[in-house]
Amino acid sequence: MTVEELLKKYAAGERDFAGINLTEANLSGVNLSGANLKGANLSVANLSGANLSKTNLTGAKLNIARLSGAHLGGADLTDADLNVAYLVRVDLKKAILIGAKLIRAELIRAELSGANLSGANLSGATLTEATLRGANLAQANLRGAHLSGACLTEANLEQANLQGADLSRADLSGADLRGTELRQANLTQAVLSGADLSGVNLRWAILSGCNLRWADLSEAKLSGADLSRADLCHADLSNASLVHADLTNAYLIRADWIGADLTGATLTGAKLHAVSRLGIKTEGMTCKWVDLSPNGDHSQIYWLNSGGTHEFFHETLPTVRIVIDSPLDQGAHFALAATYYQIAQQYPSLSQPPTIEVSSRRTVLAFKMDSDDKLFATAYVAIIPFNDAAITQKNLIALMKMIQSHDAGKLNVKESKHVQLCSKALNQAISKVDQIKISSSFPKIGESINFFQIPTQMILINSRDQRLSVYHHPGFGKRLIKKYDPSNSTSGKLAESTKLGQANITSILDFIKGFHNIDV
């Protein structure tokens, strides 16, 4: 069929041209809107400026075709071949390109907003300054693609392959990039504010000057990445890998990077106001100075001396560990959650639930916090649901008195301040616990559940990973050998009282000396 015959039939109202062969045909400026060109061969054809909106081009061959300025809005190009096609300024708004092949295609300034390109192959394609607002590119192959200056706001790029792609100055704000491959990609000065990059592979990527404000980079792989001058304010970097990453002069104000690995990273000049210095790995880090000013204006510069990173950063989060000599069952789990919920209503500092590890024999509750000074107070409240609460709380008070009585001359000014803060927090907790105990709203939910009567042990872990045993029930670990009678607790109290009396005050003071100094 010739072009003239095609246009004559179309003008007469015919729309079904499935399988038509018009290779190298000149169809520039023609109107074939709504036509059925399924499986058509239009390779090397000239369709510049043509109106192909809402056309069925599923499985069509358009290799090396010229489609510059063509209108393909709403067209169906599922599984179509557009390799090396010329699509400059083409309108593909809301088009369906599922599984389409666009290898090395030219899509400069193309309009692809709302288009479905899931599973499409765009490797080596040029999409410079293209608009893909809200486009679906899930599992698409964009390896080595050129997307500099492209607009991909709110786009879905989940599990897409963008290895080595050029995304410099691209706008990906609010985009979904979960599980995306971005290894060695160029994201210089790109905008990724509010984007979801959780778990993404950004190894050796270039993110210099990139806007990542409020972005989710939790568990992202950023080893060797260039994040110099990047804006990561309020970003979530929890458990991210930043091994040997370059964060020189990066903005990290109010970012969350608990659990991040910065081994061998460079952090000189980073803005770290309101950023935790606990719970991150910093072995081999290079950092000469950091900016602690609220606005990153260099008004509060802190210089780190040789080896100063070990004083400025601590890998461990202060933790209260309660070990129960029994596995947690569903009933006890419900009772535990309900009890801690009620406690948190009157003691908000315990609003964060503990992490729970359950083995075949024991249960470990871990209460993690952002300050060593909260350890004693948190421990005093956290033990409330258990039968061992009274003796454990008594031991916490005894330990604090021992520390205070041996403070003079053995602790420096900052260490003594830690003692004062710990004592103040503990006294406040004691006052709150008294209120909780007399509150009519506080449930006795655990009284009928055996889990809360089981022997326990409590260990405090400071930010330098030093441990202090607060209480260890004499029957702990022995209940399977000899049945424990919770009503007989006298021997436990005597044993623990003796233990505290013989405690090594030097090791207790060393525990306080290991507290992280927040004043710099």
Describe the structure in brief:
The strands form 2 sheets. The chain has a 5-stranded antiparallel sheet. It has a two-stranded antiparallel sheet with strand order 1-2. The chain has helices spanning 3-11, 309-312, 330-346, 375-382, 389-405, 413-438, 490-501, 505-513; strands spanning 289-291, 301-303, 319-324, 355-358, 363-368, 456-461, 467-472.
The chain-level mean pLDDT equals: 90
* Strand proportion: 5-15%
Counting copies of identical and different chains, the oligomeric state is single chain
Task: Calculate Rg over CA atoms.
Answer: 32 Å
Widest β-sheet, arrangement of strands: 4-5-3-6-7
What ranges have pLDDT less than 50 throughout 5 or more consecutive residues?
489-498
Distinct helical segment count: 8
Describe the main β-sheet briefly: 5 strands, antiparallel
Give the CA-based shape: elongated
SS elements, strand count: 7
Keywords for this structure?
five-stranded antiparallel beta sheet; 520 residues
Please describe what this structure looks like.
The protein is an alpha+beta fold. Helices cover 20% and strands 7% of the residues. α4 packs parallel to α6 and α5 runs antiparallel to α6. The radius of gyration is 32 Å and the shape is elongated. The N and C termini lie far apart (82 Å).
Please write out the topology.
Blueprint: H1 3-11, E1 289-291, E2 301-303, H2 309-312, E3 319-324, H3 330-346, E4 355-358, E5 363-368, H4 375-382, H5 389-405, H6 413-438, E6 456-461, E7 467-472, H7 490-501, H8 505-513
Antiparallel strand pairs: 1-2, 3-5, 3-6, 4-5, 6-7
